Amino acid sequence: MAMQQDWVNKDYYGDLGVSSTASAADIKKAYRRLARENHPDSNPGNKAAEDKFKRVAEAYDVVGDAAKRKEYDELKSMVNSGGFGRFGGTGGPGFPGGFRAQTSQTSADFDLSDIFGRAAAGGSAGEGGFSDLFSGIFNRGGAAGRNARPTRGADVETEITLDFREAAQGTTIPLELTGDAPCTTCHGSGSRSSTVTTCTACSGSGYVRENSGAFGMARPCPECGATGQRIEDPCGDCSGTGTVRRTRSITVRIPAGVIDGQKVRLAGQGEAGPNGTPAGDLFVTVHVRPDPVFSRKGDDLEVTVPVSFSELALGAAVAVPTLDTPVKVKIPAGTPSGRTLRVPGRGVPRKSGTAGDLLVTVEVQVPAHLDAGAASALRAYAQAEKDSGFNPRAGWAGLK
């Protein structure tokens, strides 16, 4: 089976940072900590954290499940000990009865590359490749059937574009999605009478066993499509799948503070799962339009405010825009052009309920034209400035 094939080269305990003897509680604790630290919502644009989050989730899906963990431990133990050798008619340790490897090779000279090579060379599951081998090994007590059944619907990805202020403050937007949705006739069960029975051909495992060459193989049950269940009276509208293709409208809440390129996950808003299984997730990639007034620096808002020379020289209180209502910012006398003033708590809202700061940079604007009165007054000021001994270029570039 493809899942067990992937297990061979994975170190799930290492991904979670625990030992193979760790308790279920320790594994769960490690998973929660790592998932929280590496969640995409907490690390926007961080590919390494996103990859780590996926590895941790995959690891916990296996070793966090008692049945899967047992199978994983047995598989790793067999691979590490070279346990793919000669097996008796009742199977070796960890093998179900009836699984036989009819070969004269010992465990020391049995080459695992024979199995991997055949699969890599194009051997399909129906031709005795790696997947069928492990389907047989792990098909005990219906475990393979559980793994074969679809457990949830498909994830859905979409993109939206928001204005700068919508992204900073958060917003609610309507979305139309086309995909698998629960059938309204059978309410997602796939049955007209909502009666689902266990498949008698595979006893609910989803796989049937048969001998094929040297190995006893397990193949997907053709009677139930590897679901382990049979619907005797399938719904006519969904043909027994429990889902139909349709367009639906949902309302999506975008949290405050999202940045350009960030993905927002909405659990359970993806496509419906077959026959009443849970829906997948919806991942919304957010694009943010630039704003003509504001820019961002983390959770801080940045704005450049035009001021006059006299406001900087004499000091003033000027109105400055924010995400909601304007605030008055006091400019101390003698403030140089280009200085940045900080207004606490008027930046981008955070999940904690606090907000970043507003960073106000003052920039002198020079009038293009002066009337006679203003020009005369400015000349008088310039002379008074010179008489006071002020020279803006004193000591600059070696000048006197």
Automatic annotation (TrEMBL):
Main location: cytoplasm
Annotated residues for binding of Zn(2+) 1: 183, 186, 235, 238
UniProt-listed GO biological process terms: DNA replication; protein refolding; response to heat
One Pfam family here: DnaJ
UniProt xrefs under PROSITE patterns: DNAJ_2, ZF_CR
Gene3D superfamilies (alphabetical): 6.20.20.10, DnaJ domain (1.10.287.110), Urease metallochaperone UreE, N-terminal domain (2.60.260.20)
Family annotation (SMART domains): DnaJ
Annotated keywords: Chaperone, Cytoplasm, DNA replication, Metal-binding, Repeat, Stress response, Zinc, Zinc-finger
Record's cofactor remark: Binds 2 Zn(2+) ions per monomer.
Function: Participates actively in the response to hyperosmotic and heat shock by preventing the aggregation of stress-denatured proteins and by disaggregating proteins, also in an autonomous, DnaK-independent fashion. Unfolded proteins bind initially to DnaJ; upon interaction with the DnaJ-bound protein, DnaK hydrolyzes its bound ATP, resulting in the formation of a stable complex. GrpE releases ADP from DnaK; ATP binding to DnaK triggers the release of the substrate protein, thus completing the reaction cycle.
Similarity field: Belongs to the DnaJ family.
Protein name in the entry: Chaperone protein DnaJ
